[in-house]
Fold Pseudouridine synthase RsuA/RluA-like domain-containing protein.
Amino acid sequence: MKTEGSITTEVDEKPCKSNYKVHQTVSSQRFEQLNLVELEPFTGRRHQLRKHLSGIGNPILGDKDYGKKPLILNGKGLYLHAYSLKFTHPFTNEAFYIKDEFPLNFKKLFDVLQ
C-alpha cells in the first residue's frame, strides 16, 4: 500500500473521494502485514471507506462484506474506528470536534498508539 493517496472510485455510481495516510505497518505471521491507516472521506457514500480500501487491494481487517477470506475474523469484528469527527452542526452552525481513544485491539497491534 502506498504511504498516502486519494481514492476517487465511484460508489453506487456516484462520485466520491477518500484520502488515506499510512501511519504504521507491522509484520504479521497470519496476515503478512497490517497497516494503521488514517482515512478522510470527503463524501458520505454508504460503506465508502470499506469499498475504497477493498478496491485498491487493501481491505479492512475483519470486513466480511468487502474483505478477502483470510482477513475475516470470526467474532472479532471490523477493525474500523472513528477516532475523531469534525463537522459543523447543520442548524446551529456550531463547530464540533469529537475525539475518542483507540480500542484496545488496535493498541495491541500498533505501538504508535501507546
User: Anything to note?
Assistant: The domain at 4-113 is CATH 3.30.2350.10 (Pseudouridine synthase). The CA atoms of residues 76 and 103 lie 12 Å apart.
